[in-house]
Amino acid sequence: MISFLKKYSPEIFGALLCLSLGLLSGYLSNSGNTQWFINLNKPEFNPPSWVFAPVWTVLYLMMGVALGKLWKVRELSGTLLTLFAIQMFLNLMWSPLFFYFHQIDLALMCLMLLWIFLLSFMTLARRVRIVYMLFVPYLLWVSFALTLNYSFFKLNS
After folding, report:
1. pTM of whole model > 0.85?
2. Contact of 84 with 139, CB cutoff 8 Å
């Protein structure tokens, strides 16, 4: 057990860090079924609220494992770590913009930037196959979130 923890400590730390930051962002921004959110016009394909917590939990854990993998080869992946930090910042900014400040348009712009940085990250991460593969579901979910956010913007502008 000790050897496992030692071998995978960057991945474990990364997973706990990303998950903790994601939870903190959601908690501080009061994301969820607030009166403001309940009163929004929603697209027909809007998933039920209970879907988001498990999806984001898995995605944050996968992002954290990818971060740990990159950290292990940080001397070779400085640019990837920088792009990871930028996309993480944009990810964490979305919830406050949307749920706390009720700025659907700024949240949409944030998601567009996030999508661009994710694509850039993944293009460079092709060399580190496991990191690339860990980010595929995240890119797909952000693509869906971008479509969903755009629909909220159109329906509530």
Report:
1. yes
2. no
